[in-house]
TrEMBL record:
This is T6SS Phospholipase effector Tle1-like catalytic domain-containing protein. Pfam families: T6SS_Tle1-like_cat. SUPFAM superfamilies: alpha/beta-Hydrolases. It comes from the Eukaryota. InterPro entries: AB_hydrolase_fold (IPR029058), Tle1-like_cat (IPR018712). It comes from Rhizoctonia solani. Residues 35-241 form the T6SS Phospholipase effector Tle1-like catalytic domain.
Amino acid sequence: MDDHDLSKLEKGIIHQSVPTDASSQPTLKPARCGRTLILCFDGTSNRYNEKNTNVIKFVSLLQNDIPDQQLIYYQPGIGTYTNPGIFTPLTMKLANVLDEAVAWYIGAHITGGYKWLMNQYQVGDRICIFGFSRGAYTARALAGMINKVGLLPPGNHEQVTIAYDIYRTDTEDGYTLGDGFRDTFSRVVPIEFVGVWDSVSSVGIVRSHTLPYAASNNIIATFRHAMALDERRAWLLRRPIEATQGPQ
């Protein structure tokens, strides 16, 4: 490189004097540390009242005033999740009974958590999902939906119903659609932890089937399931998860 080339190069460089005092060194902004996003799903007919469940007691122990580090979502249980704006008191009661008996609104429970995650998740965040009874199954199904169709970017509310319809389609075509939907629209995100206790099927007695990836899910880094081993009631039969490769 001759003097002419060196002169041209120097014109394109912004020179900065190097401080000799260590205290005057520029402070670098630390890289963003991911937040912990915690979702808690309560059991059948459970919500905040004078006799709170362990889910609510667990939520009460979580610090909820540090949004730059931790965010918390709580969802009341199956049978409490109808929209009062579209029901009379009598039909709302009937809707809640149907939801409690056969999980009529299971899709609303799953997509409720999905929408919250969709709008809150940022790269680097850690997703932790907890649930009790049918809420435990909802937690597992939410993780399954994220596996199959991915997590939509914030604001894509119109797409959520389509994503759920693809998720619950347990056929070869459904899995092909899921792959295409995830690759086209969604983010692929890992799930740090799923913790459930007394997990029972959330699809009810009449509509009994297993939603995709609710029984086995390889995007969950750590899964823990506490079970009541002596439970004998048929409608409360345990729904254990199946082992997959990797830490579970």
